[in-house]
Design goal:
- The protein is mainly beta and 181 residues long.
- The protein has one domain (2-144).
- Helices cover 12% and strands 34% of the residues.
- Strands 2, 3, 4, 5, 6 and 9 form a six-stranded mixed beta sheet that branches. Strands 1-10 form a two-stranded antiparallel sheet. Strands 7-8 form a two-stranded antiparallel sheet.
- A hairpin with a 2-residue loop joins strand 4 (42-51) and strand 5.
- The model has no long low-confidence stretch (mean pLDDT 85).
Length: 181
């Protein structure tokens, strides 16, 4: 979403809007990869405030995703809720060190994002926050037992009759190793 900076009044600006997947190319590219599917549109609540030459954006975004448990491969649905705060500036402020000399810092080092002076595009920040919120190893439940390494049975559903040997998979190839004397 493009926000016109001149529409931000002295009292600030509150926005409630949603993005479809087609409007967020990073998330659209992730759709269907690594067993990830976005089930709902991305719902956003944003507050923009102008402070001197800076625009501060505080907001939240929410989306429901369908994933697979990383232990038992069961399908699960999860609502991702992210909160973020970002400051946008038209040009970087001058920074003076203790000796009175000018210090050159990048926008990233200052924690700022540059904008063109007329519009601020919020879609990049929202996409970034959602990508960071996607769990790398989603679990159906904290105590998920996973799959049997031998027969592949879901151990959350039933106990299998496989030999219950505690094998460190790093040394599994040495299990049947015999030394001839």
């Amino acid at each position: 979403m493009q926000v016109k900076v001149k529409e931000i009044g002295a009292a600030g600006l509150n926005l409630d809007f949603s993005y479809t997947l087609e409007e967020l190319p990073v998330l659209a590219k992730m759709q269907g990869t690594a067993d990830l599917k976005f089930v709902t549109p991305v719902e956003c609540e944003i507050r923009l405030s102008k402070i001197a030459q800076m625009v501060e954006v505080c907001g939240s975004a929410r989306v429901t995703v369908a994933l697979q448990c990383s232990r038992c491969l069961a399908d699960l649905s999860s609502e991702l809720q992210v909160e973020f705060k970002q400051t946008y500036v038209e040009e970087l402020p001058d920074v003076i060190d203790e000796a009175g000399g000018e210090v050159e810092l990048s926008a990233e080092e200052m924690g700022l994002i540059l904008f063109d002076g007329e519009n601020i595009d919020l879609s990049d920040e929202i996409q970034q926050q959602i990508v960071l919120a996607i769990p790398s190893r989603p679990l159906c439940e904290e105590e998920c037992k996973g799959l049997c390494l031998t027969c592949g049975r879901n151990l959350n559903m039933a106990v299998c009759n496989c030999n219950d040997r505690n094998i460190n998979m790093h040394f599994a190839s040495l299990l049947d190793f015999k030394v001839d004397k």
